[in-house]
Prior knowledge:
A hairpin with a 2-residue loop joins strand 22 (about 590-595) and strand 23. The model is unreliable at about 620-640 (pLDDT under 50). It is built from 28 helices and 24 strands. Helix content is about 45%, strand content about 15%. The chain has 3 domains: about 5-240, no CATH class; about 270-515, Alpha-Beta Horseshoe (pyruvate-formate lyase- activating enzyme), CATH 3.80.30; about 525-600, Arc Repressor Mutant, subunit A. The strands form 8 sheets. A 6-stranded mixed β-sheet has the order 2-1-3-4-5-6, with helices on both faces. A 5-stranded parallel β-sheet has the order 7-10-12-13-14, with helices on one face. Strands 19-20-21 form a 3-stranded antiparallel β-sheet, with no helix packed on it. The chain has about 650 residues and is α/β, with parallel strands linked by helices. The longest helix has 22 residues, at about 105-125.
Amino acid sequence: xxxxxxxxxxxxxxxxxxxxxxxxxxxxxxxxxxxxxxxxxxxxxxxxxxxxxxxxxxxxxxxxxxxxxxxxxxxxxxxxxxxxxxxxxxxxxxxxxxxxxxxxxxxxxxxxxxxxxxxxxxxxxxxxxxxxxxxxxxxxxxxxxxxxxxxxxxxxxxxxxxxxxxxxxxxxxxxxxxxxxxxxxxxxxxxxxxxxxxxxxxxxxxxxxxxxxxxxxxxxxxxxxxxxxxxxxxxxxxxxxxxxxxxxxxxxxxxxxxxxxxxxxxxxxxxxxxxxxxxxxxxxxxxxxxxxxxxxxxxxxxxxxxxxxxxxxxxxxxxxxxxxxxxxxxxxxxxxxxxxxxxxxxxxxxxxxxxxxxxxxxxxxxxxxxxxxxxxxxxxxxxxxxxxxxxxxxxxxxxxxxxxxxxxxxxxxxxxxxxxxxxxxxxxxxxxxxxxxxxxxxxxxxxxxxxxxxxxxxxxxxxxxxxxxxxxxxxxxxxxxxxxxxxxxxxxxxxxxxxxxxxxxxxxxxxxxxxxxxxxxxxxxxxxxxxxxxxxxxxxxxxxxxxxxxxxxxxxxxxxxxxxxxxxxxxxxxxxxxxxxxxxxxxxxxxxxxxxxxxxxxxxxxxxxxxxxxxxxxxxxxxxxxxxxxxxxxxxxxxxx
Length: 641
C-alpha cells in the first residue's frame, strides 16, 4: 500500500521551540524509511498561535499554557452550542486560571485551528496514498489534535489514518476521550521510533484494497493499539544499541518556517538567538520517586555518553546557527559531566537547560557552567528529611541545598520546585520547610507544586482499586457527565483531601498563602574575602568579620560536611569546634541540617572556577577558558595547548 507520513505538533507547545518528538521521529523516518514513505513535519504549535494572536502569540502561550488543554477543550466544544454553553459556564467559575479566555477568544482559537488545517495540512494530503497523520500529544496537545482530526474528517477526502503518540495517550482517560470525540485511529506508547517503523513497514506490505486500520490492529504491533481498545499494553524496553542508533533530530521544517515568517536577516538572527534546540542525552530515569510517572510510562532508562551528546549538540548548533540547547531528558546526570569536559576541551560554550539530580559535585556544576549551562531544574522537591524520604527521592536535604547554592554562586538560573500537600507529609514537615526557607532568602525562590497522583507513578501503582477509584477523573470544574470527554491535567489525578492529615493540610495551605504574599528579590549574603561576610538580609547591610577558626569552618561548610568531619579537617577538638560554629550561628551564616551544616554566604564564581582549572582531564588554553568562564554563551575556535 502506498503511503505518506505527516507528523504534527500542535499547541500548547512553546511556539518558539521545535518539537523534540517531531524532530526525532522525522530524523528517524528520513534515515530509515525513505524507501517506503515520504515524511513531512508540521509545526502547527507555531502556526496556530500565530493565526490566533499574531505577534502576541508567545505572550498568549505563557498566559494560557498551564491550562492549555482546558482552552482547546472549549475550542472543541465550540461547534456544539449546547455543549459549549454548559462547558463555558463551568469554565467561568473555574478559579485556577489566572487569566480566563472569553467567548470571542475561544471562537477565534477554534477558527485558527480550522484555518490552519484547511490551508496547510489538508492540501498536503495525497489523494492516492494512505496519509498516516501522527500527532504528538505530550502533556497539553490532546484537544488541539482532536480538533484537527475532526476538521480533517469534515473537509478532506484523502484516505487518512490517525496515530497519536506521546505521554498523554498512556492514560486511559485520554484514550477514552479520543473515542468519545469520534476519533478512530491508533495510539503509540513509549519510544516512538520502533512502532513508527513497524507501522510504516506493515502498511507497505498491505494490498491497496486492504483496511489499514483493521490490519494494523490485528497485527498487534508492540506498543500500538486501537483507540477504544480496552487492552493497551505498554513495553518500556529499549536496547542500548537502539538508543545509541538514534540519530540527529531533523528540525528543518521549523527553521524554514521561521525564515519565511521573518525574512529580514538581522531580525531573523535576533530571533534565532532565543530559539533552543531540543536534544536528548538519555531516555527514562534511573530514579523511582514516588510521585513521578516518567520511569513507568515513558521508557526504560538508557543513556548516551557525554562525548556523543557534545558532538551532536555542536553539530546541531552549527546546522541551525543556534546558540541555545534544551535538553529534554528527565535527568542528565549520567552524561552531563563528560559532556561539559568535551565542550570545554573543544572551546565551545552554548547556553543550555538541564534537569539534574542534586548529588552532583561542586566541580560538576562548575564544569557545566563553563560549558554554557545557564538554567537548571534540580530534583529538590522537599527540604524536610522525613518528607524527602517518604517521597523515595534517594537524596538528602543537605544535597538539595548545597546544589541550589552552587547554582546561585555560578550564575545558573534555578527553576526548581517544592512539592506541597504530599499525602505522607506532616505539620512538622511544613515547620521544617519554613525554617529552611527563612535561611535561604538570598537564593532564587522555589516554585511550588501541589501534589497530585501521577498516572503510572509508584504511589499510583501501590494504591488499591478502591483508592484509585476515589481519584478525581477529568476536568473537575466540568459537570460530572461531561468529564469523560476531557482528560487529566499534567497526566495526574487530584486526590481526596481526607488522605492528608487535616493539621498538615491547614499548615500547607497557610504556607502557600504566605509564600504567594511575600515574593521578593533575593537578598544579599556573600563572601568578601575569607574573613568577611556582607549581609543585606532584613534590609540593612552588615559586615561580619570572622576570626580564623570561624573563617575556616565557614570555608569547609560550603560542602555541607558532617560536624565530626569538619572538626577533623580543621584540626579542632570538640570545644574549639563548638565555640567556632556557635559564633557562625550567632550571625546566621550557617544552617544546621541534622549532623551537618551548610555555609550560607555565596562565594564568587571565580572561586569555584579556580577549583576546576587544575583538572587534568582537559586542557583548553587561556583564551578558550577565559571566554568560557566569562559566562557568555559563545562559540570559539579550538585552542588546545
